[in-house]
Amino acid sequence: MNTMIRTMREFVQTFKAARRVSTPLVAVRTADPASTIQTIQETLNSKAKNTAVLYWDVMRGLVGLNDAGLNH
Fold first, then answer.
1. Is pLDDT above 60 for 1?
2. Are 33 and 55 in contact (CB under 8 A)?
3. Can you list the pairs that 4-10 forms with residues at least 24 positions away whose Cβ atoms lie under 8 Å?
4. Residue 3 included in any domain
5. How does the average pLDDT of the chain come out, rounded?
6. pLDDT value at 4 more than 80
7. Does residue 45 register a pLDDT over 90?
8. Which DSSP string do the residues of 7-58 spell out, in sequence order?
9. How many structural domains compose the chain?
10. By residue range, what is the domain housing residue 50?
11. Residue 46: inside a domain, yes or no?
12. Residue 53 lies in a domain
């Protein structure tokens, strides 16, 4: 799904909808990665521990951001 989301509230709603239907991979393009990563981790709540959160950029490649992400 390639949707232009304009507000953080819309992003959180779309992210939660993707999680509800077990979307295996969610890619997010953003101008503010730090804020977006924080919002994703907050949205995951208690499921953050078991959900791999990964970050990719052209300089570092794929980096795990939590224990589950480091083990994948």
1. no
2. yes
3. 8/39
4. no
5. 88
6. no
7. no
8. SHHHHHHHHHHHHHTT-S------S-HHHHHHHHHHHHGGGGGTS--EEEET
9. 1
10. 8-70
11. yes
12. yes
